[in-house]
């Protein structure tokens, strides 16, 4: 049984349908990358998994149990944490308070505490009393990742964490992923930076127009396959 | 006119206004909800304390301690069941609903307690005073002011030093992302209004011991509370205390010049502060 899976997942924004029967599986310990162009439905998929969009109960299963209709606070308690697109730090809270608030819905004990998050991103310890929004973009992304880890999630959802950051900063942030995996989290990464996504992922799904158009191991799929799945078969 | 005496009395009066305003400031600071029934809820709490004092023969202070959890529960249910449904991008629904609530509370109190004006007896404490150097200070106003300072200190500690306070601030910043942290915004808001009603009970205790009250006097209390919150800057608890003190001092100074000017002087001070600092003295909120 997969740790987390979607079955024929559909999602709507009022009358607009954003997802058309998406099936993905995340195995325990695995890192998935979901790639695709703007508007392909990647963020909608993550918002559905995190409970920000509620769906049919049976469309999303965690350990085989339906969680599709759960609102976000309950989903966190089930062990799914999200690093939202644009980081979304709380401006009224310091760096340390932003991390602490991540433990509010903590489901159980685990590796991640303030101490281990500071070990992972030492620069945050130096800036612990600054307002979260006073940090550089890369440091803010570290806070957002640390904040999600503080709930000791079984599944970590990362939405566009490289967006707007310099390549060297992106490399720093992705350098933390092996330790996050070692600590036991399974990860779903949504990325437009295909190179980065292929480097860290065990498996890749490509989305277009609300559907999965390609899936496989990064080594087993060619750039042409990705190109076709990304833009449509006739777009070359 | 003894200036020192006048100003000290004004500062102490400001403590009462700060107590009126602190609950309003808390609720507005967290959920941008302007509660037009705040003054009526103070009067409601005063009647509750009065009821406990007269039926059980309790001291007003003990009665207030008993009334606090009752008012907390009332606030929690009010927010969870009613006011949460009015929150959104439109500011009109909460104004209309709390305006209606204000009328409902006034009329319910009129039905239950008649239009007679009442007073909570504090057993001689009302007339006791302390001699501090050249001036004489009433024990009750001093106690009111110290309670106001204690409430402001307590709210600040709660807001900036506890997990609940972090949840308050995070939810105020961004409801959706707070949900991703496992916070249930509707429950956080209900708890905030419950706490505001505990502060309202303290305000009601001193209101009821200090002067006569009747079911229709809520809106008049509301305007002082509003002025204190706005002078202080939206979302700042110390600002709210400062706002209360400014109105209190303006009123006693106005009254010492001409007794007819007491209320007017408070409102003029409010307008002057707004002319110079349109966002109040210590604005915390960004919007």
From TrEMBL, chain A:
Gene3D superfamilies: P-loop containing nucleotide triphosphate hydrolases. InterPro entries: AAA+_ATPase, ABC_transporter-like_ATP-bd, ABC_transporter-like_CS, BCAA_Transport_ATP-bd_LivF, P-loop_NTPase. Keywords: Amino-acid transport, ATP-binding, Nucleotide-binding, Transport. It holds the Pfam family ABC_tran. The keyword Transcription does not apply. One of its GO terms (biological process) is L-amino acid transport. Residues 4-234 form the ABC transporter domain. The keyword Coiled coil does not apply. GO terms for molecular function: ATP binding; ATP hydrolysis activity; branched-chain amino acid transmembrane transporter activity. Belongs to the ABC transporter superfamily. This is ABC transporter ATP-binding protein. It comes from Mesorhizobium zhangyense. The lineage of its organism: Bacteria, Pseudomonadati, Pseudomonadota, Alphaproteobacteria, Hyphomicrobiales.
TrEMBL record, chain B:
InterPro entries: ABC_transp_permease, BCAA_transport_permease. GO terms for biological process: amino acid transport. The chain crosses the membrane at residues 6-29, 41-58, 64-83, 95-115, 135-159, 188-208, 228-249, 261-278. The keyword Cell membrane applies. It is found in: Cell membrane. Keywords: Amino-acid transport, Cell membrane, Membrane, Transmembrane, Transmembrane helix, Transport. GO terms for cellular component: plasma membrane. GO terms for molecular function: transmembrane transporter activity. The keyword Cell membrane applies. Belongs to the binding-protein-dependent transport system permease family. LivHM subfamily. This is Branched-chain amino acid ABC transporter permease. The lineage of its organism: Bacteria, Pseudomonadati, Pseudomonadota, Alphaproteobacteria, Hyphomicrobiales.
């Amino acid at each position: 049984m997969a740790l987390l899976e979607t079955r024929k997942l559909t999602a709507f924004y009022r009358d607009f349908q954003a997802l058309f029967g998406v099936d993905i599986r995340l195995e325990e310990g695995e890192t998935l990358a979901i790639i695709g162009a703007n508007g392909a439905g990647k963020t909608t998929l993550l918002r559905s998994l995190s409970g920000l969009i509620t769906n049919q109960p049976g469309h999303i299963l965690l350990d085989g149990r339906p969680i599709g209709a759960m609102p976000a606070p309950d989903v966190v308690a089930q062990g799914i944490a999200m690093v939202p697109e644009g980081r979304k730090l709380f401006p009224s809270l310091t760096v340390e308070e932003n991390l602490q608030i991540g433990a509010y819905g903590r489901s159980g004990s685990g590796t991640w505490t303030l101490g281990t998050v500071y070990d992972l991103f030492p620069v945050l310890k130096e800036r612990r009393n600054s307002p979260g929004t006073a940090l550089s973009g890369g440091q803010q992304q570290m806070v957002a990742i640390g904040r999600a880890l503080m709930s000791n999630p079984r599944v970590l959802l990362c939405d566009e964490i490289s967006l707007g950051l310099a390549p060297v900063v992106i490399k720093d942030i992705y350098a933390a992923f092996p330790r996050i995996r070692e600590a036991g989290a399974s990860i779903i990464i949504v990325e437009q930076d295909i190179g980065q996504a292929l480097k860290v992922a065990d498996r890749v799904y490509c989305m277009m127009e609300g559907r999965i158009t390609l899936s496989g191991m990064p080594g087993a799929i060619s750039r042409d396959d990705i190109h076709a799945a990304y833009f449509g078969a006739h777009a070359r | 006119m003894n200036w020192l005496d006048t100003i000290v009395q004004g500062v102490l009066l400001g403590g009462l206004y700060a107590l009126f305003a602190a609950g309003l400031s808390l609720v507005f600071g967290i959920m941008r909800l302007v509660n037009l029934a705040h003054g009526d809820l103070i009067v409601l709490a005063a009647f509750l304390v009065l009821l406990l004092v007269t039926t059980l023969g309790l001291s007003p202070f003990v009665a207030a301690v008993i009334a606090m959890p009752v008012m907390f529960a009332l606030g929690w249910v009010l927010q969870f069941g009613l006011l949460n449904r009015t929150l959104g991008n439109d500011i009109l629904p909460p104004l209309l609903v709390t305006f209606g609530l204000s009328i409902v509370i006034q009329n319910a109190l009129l039905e239950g307690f008649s239009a007679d004006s009442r007073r909570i007896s504090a057993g001689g404490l009302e007339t006791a005073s302390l001699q501090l150097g050249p001036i004489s200070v009433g024990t009750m106003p001093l106690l009111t002011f110290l309670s106001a300072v204690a409430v402001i200190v307590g709210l600040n500690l709660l807001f900036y030093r506890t997990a609940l306070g972090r949840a308050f601030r995070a939810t105020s910043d961004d409801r959706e992302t707070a949900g991703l942290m496992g916070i249930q915004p509707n429950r956080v808001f209900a708890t905030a209004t419950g706490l505001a009603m505990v502060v309202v009970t303290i305000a009601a205790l001193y209101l009821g011991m200090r002067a006569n009250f009747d079911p229709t006097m809520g809106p008049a209390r509301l305007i002082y509370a509003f002025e204190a919150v706005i002078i202080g800057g939206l979302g700042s608890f110390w600002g709210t205390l400062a706002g209360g003190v400014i109105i209190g001092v303006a009123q006693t100074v106005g009254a010492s010049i001409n007794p007819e000017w007491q209320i007017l002087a408070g409102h003029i001070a409010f307008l002057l502060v707004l002319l110079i600092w349109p966002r109040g003295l210590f604005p915390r909120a960004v919007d």
